[in-house]
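Pair request: fold both.
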Amino acid sequence: MSADRSTLELLAPARDAEIGIEAINHGADAVYIGGPSFGARKGADNEVSDIARLCAHAHRFHARVFATMNTILRDDELEPARRTIWQLYDAGVDALIVQDMALCEMDLPPIQLHASTQTDIRDERKARFLQDVGFTQIVLAREMTIEDIRKVAAHTSCVLEYFVHGALCVAYSGQCYISHAHTGRSANRGECSQACRLPYTLTDAQGRVVAHDKHLLSMKDNDQSANLRALIDAGISSFKIEGRLKDMAYVKNITAYYRTLLDGILDERPALRRASSGRSTFTFTPQPEKTFNRGLTDYFANGRQHGIEAFESPAFVGEEAATITRVGSDHIEVEAAVDIHNGDGLSYYDSHREVSGLRINVAQGRRLYPNAMPDDLKPGMTLYRNRDQAFERALERKSAERRVRIDLQLDEVAQGYALTLCDEDGVSARAELAHDRQPARDPARALAAMRDSLAKLGNTMFEAGEIAFGFAQPAFLPASVLNGLRRDAVALLEQNRLKAHVRPRPGVPVQPPVRFTDSELSYLANVYNEKARAFYRKHGVELIADAYEANQTLGEASLMITKHCLRFSHNLCPKELKEYDLRGMVKAEPMTLINGNDTLTLRFDCKKCEMHVVGRIRPNVLKAQAVPVTFHRRMPEGIGRTKA
C-alpha cells in the first residue's frame, strides 16, 4: 500500500449532514462526521440515514466521507460498535477514524481505517507501526514540527494528515485525563469537560504566586495557513480543519478560506492535484478572523515559541473595532476603526480582565445604542467586534456553488441526435433523441442557438467547457427538444459519476505481525477492552496496564502530558536561562496549579520538553464510578512510563 502524496485533500468537519453538505459545496475534498455513537463528541451524533444523504452528495463530486469511531470502547460496546460500522459502510462511508486498536481485531467490512490524532503519533516509529498494521491514513500530533513531519514521511508511505486550523487541545491528544479525574467524564470517550479552559493560579515550590487567576492551560487557535507549502513539501497531503461542534458559518468560512489557498497552490504547482472534482465559487470573501477564535498561532510547526497561549480568556474577543470616547445613559460614542452596523456584537475587557460583551441595537455614525447598557464602560476602553452581522447574514444565505466541468458534443445519428457529455474525470454519458431533421433557414443562427441551449447548466452540478458539433450544416432543432436531450444526458452523467465513485481500499497488515515500539504499556495506551489487549499481545507487548478510565486505584498520576510549558511561558525555562547563567532563578519543582479546591502538581521533563500535570481522581468521582474492574499486570505508577 502506497499513498500518492501529490494528491491534496482538504478535510472539513461536520456536526451534522447539512453542515457536511455545505462543507462539500464550499470546496472540501472530504468531511468527517460522527455516527450515532462512539464518535468522541457528545452533541455531534448523527443518524445513519443522514450520513447516507451526506455520502450521496459528496460522492457526486468524488469527495469522501469519514465517520469518527474514535472513543475507547468497553468490552460490552464492541459488538454494538461493530454493528454500527457495518451500517455506516452500507450507508456509503469511505473510511473510519478510530482510536481503539480493538477494531483491528474485529469482523469489519472492507473499509479503510484512519488512525485518530488520539492514537498519539509523535514520531516515525509509531507512525510506521500503525501503517504496518493496516492504517492507510494517520493523523499526526498537532505538536509536531515540520521537521518532525519530514522524518515521518521518510519512513512511511501512507497518507499523512495534519490539523491546519481550529481549537488546540493543550495536551497530546489521548493523553489527558483531567476531565475524567475531576468529573467522571472521559475525554477519550467524547465527554471532555474542558478543564484546560478554566482559570488557574500558578505557584512555585515556595508557594509564591507566579500568575493569578489566568487561563494557564488555554491555547490560542491553530492556524497553519502560512505553512501550507512547507507542509506539502514535508509530506502532508491531508489538511484537516478542526471543529465538529462548530456551526455552519464557521465551516463555510474556514473551508472556503483553505480551499482558496490550496487552489492557489495547485494552480502554481502542476504536479499536484486535488482529491475530488469540481471548483467552488463563493458569494463572500472568506475571512477567518471573523469566525470564533482565541487568537491564532502556528503552535510548534516551526519550533517552540512564545505567544501560543490564550491566558487572558478562552472566549472569542474579535477584531479591534473602536475606542470609547463618551458614555451616555443609553448609548456610547466611539472612534471606530471599522464600520459598525445594527446587530453587531462587541466585546471588551472589564475591570477583572474578563471578556464581557454587548449587542448593538442601533448604530448611528459614532453613536452606538446597545440592547442593554453595561455599567462598567468607560472612555478610553477598546471595543472589539466578535460578531459582524453583515458577514454572518451573508453566510446564512446560499454562499457557494460547486461545479464540475464537462465537454459537450452533439452529433447526428440515423434516427436523430445524440448528445455526449464527458467530465473532468473522464466519466461520460450519452443520450439519444429521435427527431426529424429539417434544414435551418439561418445555419449560423441555428448553431448559436444550439450552443446557448447546451450551455444552460445552471440548475445542475456542471458547468460547460468545450461545446462541439459533429456536423457542418445544422438542422432546425427546437430549443425545448434540445433542452430535454441535455437534461437526459446530465441525469445519466450524474448516475454514472455515482457509479464511478470507488471507495478507497483498506490497508493490509504486514505478515508476520510487526512488533510494537515497546514491550510494556502504561495506562497512557488507553487499553480498555480484551480485544485491544489481544491486539497488543499479538504485536509483542508483554505488560499491559488498564486504561485510566478502568484503573480506579491508580492514585496520583499524570492527568495531562503537554508540550506547552508554564516555566517557558513565564521565562523560567532552565534551557533559556542557561544561556544567561541565570539558572538559579528557577526554583525546584514542584509548581502547582490551583482552581478552587483542586490543586494540580506540575512536573517538567526537560529532556523531552514536556510538562506533566499530576493529580488524583476526586473521591466523589471514584465513588460514582465504582464498578467491578478486572486488573491485568500493571506497570509501576508514575510519570516516567510514557512510552505509549
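--- second member of the pair ---
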Amino acid sequence: MTKSDDNSWLRKIFPRALWSRRFTIIWAGCFATVLAFDLLWSMATSFRGLGFASTYIFGATLALAMAAPAAIWRSRWPSAIILVAADLLAIANLMYCRTYFGPIPPASYLLGGNVAEFGDAIRHSLRLSDLVFPAITILTLLLSTVKSIDSPEPPARKRLKATLAALAAGVAACQACGALQGGGVLSHITHLKEECYYRATPPVAYTLPVSILADLLESNRPISDQELADARQWLREGDMLRSEPAANLAYKPGNVVMIIVESLEAWPLGKSVEGQEITPCLNRLLADTATTWMAPRVLSQVGPGRSIDGQLLMTTGLLPMADYVYSMRFPDHTYPHLAQTLRADSGMKSYLLSGDRATTWNQGAVAKSFGIDETRFRDSWDSSESFGHPRNPSDGSFLRQVADCMKKGEIWPEGERALVEVITYSSHFPFTIPEEHRRLRLSADYPAPLGDYMTAINYTDHAVGEFISYLRSRSDAAETMIVIVGDHEGLASWRDPIRAACPQLASLVDAESFVPMIVVNSPVAGRYEPVMGQVDIYPTILDLAGIPHTQGIFPGLGFSALSPSAPGAAIDITGRMTGASDSIPAAMADHLRRSYGVSSTIIRADMLR
C-alpha cells in the first residue's frame, strides 16, 4: 500500500477497519440501549412490537448511526455524549408512557415550564429498571477504553466482518423495499397508530427517533380537503345517530356548579378499607337516591394534556389531540364551552376557579376561548397551606377560600345565575398528603402507590364535602345543580400490578380507567350503569339542564346518557373500545372509532368558528 493510499480520504474517515473491536463494542452498547428501551416499553404497553422484523433491523441501523463517531474520532467523548443523550431520551419517554401510554409528542419537548411544575410526579415515575441505561453506557465506555482493542486483525476476520455487514445491509434494504410497497415507513406507522392493539408499537418497531420524526411530520402536515369533507360527513352521521332524551325535562337549574376532582376514579366510591370509608362525603351524597344521579363507568379519554384534556372533553364535548396539547398549539381556536351555551340559554355568568397557575397547560389563555367571564388562578389565593410541589394551595384551604369569597359576594353572589367551574389539585400524583392532614389511617402495606392514592382521595373527599355543605346552605341551593367529575384516572400503569397483587385488591380496584359523574339536585335520579365516555358528559349536562337540541347549539361529539341512542361503549385515546362493543351496531362502532381523528381535524382546522 502506498503512502498516498494511506492518506486517502477514506482512511482519514475510517482510521481502522470499520468493524474494529472498539467500534464493535460501542455499536453493541448502542444496540443494547435500543433493545433495553424496546423491552421496557413493551412491558408498559404491549409485547407485540417485539414481533416485527423492523424492530431489530431499524434498531441495529440506529445503533450504527449512534456508533459512527467511534469510527471517525478516537476519543470516546462523542460516543459518551450520544449514549447519555439516548439514555435521557429513553428514560423520559418511558416515564411519560407510564402515565400517558405513548411517546412524548414532539411539541411537548418545548414545554419546560410545565415540566418544572410537575417535578414530584416526574421523579415518582422513575423505576429501578431505568438504571439499566446508565449501566449499559458505563460498561460500554469502560470496555471501549481497553488499549488492545484496536490492534490489527487478521485479514480473514476482516473479510468475515465485511461479509456480515454486507448481509445485514442487504436484509435492511429488503425490509425497506417491503415497507415502501405498503406506502413507506411513515404510512405504516400511521396505520399502526390506528389499530387498537398496535398503537403503542411504533417506538419499538421503528425506533423512538423515527417515531418522533413521524409524529412531527404528521402534526405539521396541512389538512386536506378530503379530511375536512370526512369530518363534515362524520358530524352529519352523528346528527342522524343522536336522538332526544328519553324524557322531556322541563327542569332548568338556576346555577350549575361543576367540581372537577383531580385523578378521581370511580372505584373508591362506596368502598371501605380497614373498616374506613374511602369517600364518606361523596357516599352521603349518593345515599340520597331521590335527587342524585350517578354514572360510575365513565371511561377516561384524556390525551397528552391530561387535566386540560379533561376540561376539553367534559365542558366542550370535543376529544383531545394525540399529537398536540390543544391548549398549547391552538389556544385561540373556537371551543363551544358550556359557558357559552348556558349564557345563551339562561343568561348565566361563568367562573373558572383553580389553585393552579394560569400558565399551566396555558389554561388562562384557553379559558378566554372557552368564553368564561371570570377566572381566578393560583395568584388569587393564599398558598401558605400547600402540599408538595408545585406550591398550589391545598384543596382544603383552596375550597375554604372559594367559599369565603362567595359569602362576601366577590364570586357568584346569591341571586346571580352562574356556571361555576372549580378545579381541585391535592389528589394529583404522587398523592402526597402530610401526616397531620390525613384522615384515612392505613396500617396494611399496599402496593405503590395505592395507599397514598386512597389517602389523597379521602383528603380531597372531605374538602369537597365541606364545600358542598356551604353550597347547600345558600338561599339558591334548591336551584343549583352540582356536577362532580374526575378529570382523568389516577393509577395509570400501576393498575394492572396492583390488581395482580392479590384477589382482594383485584376486587377493590377497577380493571378499567373509569372516573365517576355525580349530579346533585338532578332532575333524574338513580344510577346509569352502561359505559360512557368523558366526551358524553357535555351532552348529558345539556340534557340535565333542559337545553333543547335546537339548531345553533353544538351537541358535542358524544352521546347523552339520557338518550336512547347512547351506545353503552366508549373509546380511549389508544383506540381501545370499552363497554358493549359487541352489541352496538357496526355503524355506531365505526363512528366511535373515527371520533378522535375527526375531533383533531375540527380543532386544527378551527371548523367551529
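Observation on the second member. The two ends are 73 Å apart (CA to CA).
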